[in-house]
Task: inverse folding
């Protein structure tokens, strides 16, 4: 038999997959047990010049050509965005077709519902490529770590921001300049909002948390801060204190409650995550049996993402070829509540510009002390002698986020504090 | 239905698995879709005191009690060693039972044959725990990276030696002292041969190379050197030159030929592998699509190994519960030859003790030059002024192993060379 593939989308990843299906056809057929036939590829503009040629008649602008073709066994959704992707995926599943997707937005927002739909129709949705490009993550969580109770995930899952932070740290660049350079090199999009504001990472974290904790976490439940307010000064102070700064996606479960957040953190220079540089991703998982495991690799790009998409296609093709039914996994509900960020208890790094005169630290300490925030260390540096200004960096002991926020408000109102410049949570 | 489990072996890992099956029974049953019943555990001495109690009548000294029990669906082999483990596994498969094993020796020596036997009897052998403890490796190679042509594996897959090397590097210890400390702390066995001579790592590398390159590599085909001839001096010079020293298991495929070797290497301090410390393992894979991925975690211990054993058990239990046949993977032959170490071309670190007088370096350089070995850098240090001795460390450009060996022989015969103290290959 032949395994019929329908591609929804022929962008960077779609072209990579189509190309691999052609160029590696023999090796893939051997792995799958059957040859693949790419039957259609949905595109917006069939006339658009493409980097490689596909057989005549393969391109279509009508999704129905794919969804209604009985010879298409696997629909590969690589168009991105919520609509119409999710509609097409639903229709494919209802027609008994298998679905492979790299769509983090759809899987974060609709994952459990699509899994239910697949189960009801005796097929599968696979989404390895939706998080971490080619790094095996979804399948390890669903299979290899399945016996573990996962307590925490710490992840660098956005290559663009990790690239920008790596440049800021290494070269003392300000954010805006590092972003411009990343854009010039193609590491960041012309509109970088999705990456630099942590939206992309929040989608991916919602997917990972949902499968790790077996309870749905929606992207809007992920607390989120971007990297645009970081200054090279923060990197300098962090280094002095033995820390690196990374944008981490963090998910934890304790007592049936879930904590999910994406924001810059200070983390010890000694950790492996602190050593993940450039556009690389790394996902660190803590399980009750396995202890700490880390998965590392390129989280984006046509080839790495194709690796994950093709793995999902191969997995399904082996089953289709051998007439093996998919394994139904238990439905995922929404039993476990997500706790608000105000309940977080961690250490904080606070940087502020203050008047360089006696008694200033006493006033600040009083505000903190009254809110039960205890100081672990202080760095004070004169920054502008003529203006009589100094910069203070305070590291706190573990404190409640709600009270730290109140402290920042009260400190900003002190006459001696010119500006509260930044506050960054400390992790690990 | 109930999934019947028979345990062959109730040592550290076996006890961990039995314990988890009991203590996590509810969570595991939910994951599997059926409850588990531990029906028998094969032990040598039923009277031996054990850290936790199993129901009366569960212990047996007769393997046939497990192999002949029709209610045992999955035989979990955790006794280790080649015989009688392999015999029991064969019999289990022939009787249509699924097999899960952590046995690296059996899988390295007999893997493809056992996989064939399983295929012939419509069952499966799973062996995730045989390499890297709880780190997902076998399943990622078989599934997630299946679309890739793997070109190279660089792995730290023996925690004992990595622990010893970490201590030697950090504290300037000699090997014998670091080994004694590792033994005192339980990181090394009373007879450490299997670990320090790279035998354990060679088994694991044979397994990884076999599934990555889809051609059987036998453990005796793995070129192997242990860590016992490393001196703290090597660590000191390596650091000066920007390198760390690790025991790496390396497998490469080029033009249908396989290179497999386990030996100490100098690798750049900037690599992530150089930063893997203590008893942790890390496996770095290069694939044509995925680029570089790294899997990191604890490679041994009762709990991490249980994590992998239980993942395999869960995977099979889901299939048994839902009446889903195993997926047959293509048979693995022996098409790809293993090339001898003499054909290796890499950079070398050479350390020798020489007479501290003019012309010595010229004599050494002539030997190297005549064998087409070109020098990249030299460190010369006076070590013993009274004896007129100095130490020379030479880093070569890429050279042929056969010629480097010949050069070492010729240099040892030079009157000015008191001792060729070490030579270490450079990687990455």
Result:
């Amino acid at each position: 038999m032949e395994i019929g593939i329908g591609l929804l989308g022929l962008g960077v990843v779609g072209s990579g997959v189509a190309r691999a299906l052609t160029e590696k056809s023999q090796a893939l057929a051997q792995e799958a047990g059957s040859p693949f036939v790419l039957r259609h590829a949905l595109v917006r503009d069939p006339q658009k010049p493409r980097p490689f040629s596909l057989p005549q008649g393969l391109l279509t602008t009508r999704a129905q050509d794919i969804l209604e073709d009985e010879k298409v066994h696997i629909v590969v959704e690589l168009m991105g965005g919520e609509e119409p992707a999710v509609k097409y995926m639903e229709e494919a599943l209802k027609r008994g077709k298998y679905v492979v997707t790299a769509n983090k937005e759809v899987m974060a927002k609709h994952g459990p519902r699509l899994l239910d739909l697949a189960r009801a129709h005796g097929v599968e949705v696979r989404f390895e490529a939706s998080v971490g490009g080619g790094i095996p993550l979804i399948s390890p969580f669903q299979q290899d770590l399945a016996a573990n109770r996962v307590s925490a995930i710490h992840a660098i899952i956005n290559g663009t921001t990790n690239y920008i932070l790596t440049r800021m740290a290494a070269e003392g660049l300000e954010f805006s300049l590092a972003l411009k350079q990343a854009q010039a090199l193609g590491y960041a999009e012309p509109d970088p909002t999705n990456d630099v504001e942590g939206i992309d990472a929040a989608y991916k974290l919602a997917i990972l948390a949902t499968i790790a904790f077996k309870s749905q976490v929606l992207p809007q439940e992920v607390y989120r801060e971007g990297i645009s307010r970081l200054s090279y000064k923060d990197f300098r102070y962090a280094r002095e204190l033995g820390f690196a700064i990374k944008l981490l996606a963090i998910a934890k479960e304790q007592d049936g409650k879930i904590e999910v957040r994406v924001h810059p953190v200070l983390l010890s220079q000694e950790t492996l995550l602190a050593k993940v540089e450039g556009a690389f991703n790394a996902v660190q998982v803590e399980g009750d049996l396995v202890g700490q495991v880390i998965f590392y690799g390129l989280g984006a790009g046509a080839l790495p993402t194709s690796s994950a998409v093709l793995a999902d296609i191969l997995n399904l093709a082996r089953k289709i070829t051998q007439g093996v039914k998919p394994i139904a996994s238990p439905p995922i509900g929404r039993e476990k509540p997500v706790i608000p960020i105000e309940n977080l208890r961690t250490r904080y790094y606070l940087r502020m510009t203050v008047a360089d005169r006696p008694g200033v630290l006493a006033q600040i300490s009083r505000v903190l002390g009254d809110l039960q925030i205890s100081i672990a260390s202080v760095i004070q540096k004169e920054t502008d002698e003529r203006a009589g200004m100094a910069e203070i960096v305070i590291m706190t002991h573990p404190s409640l986020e709600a009270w730290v926020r109140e402290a920042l408000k009260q400190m900003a109102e002190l006459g001696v504090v010119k500006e509260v410049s930044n506050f960054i949570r400390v992790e690990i």
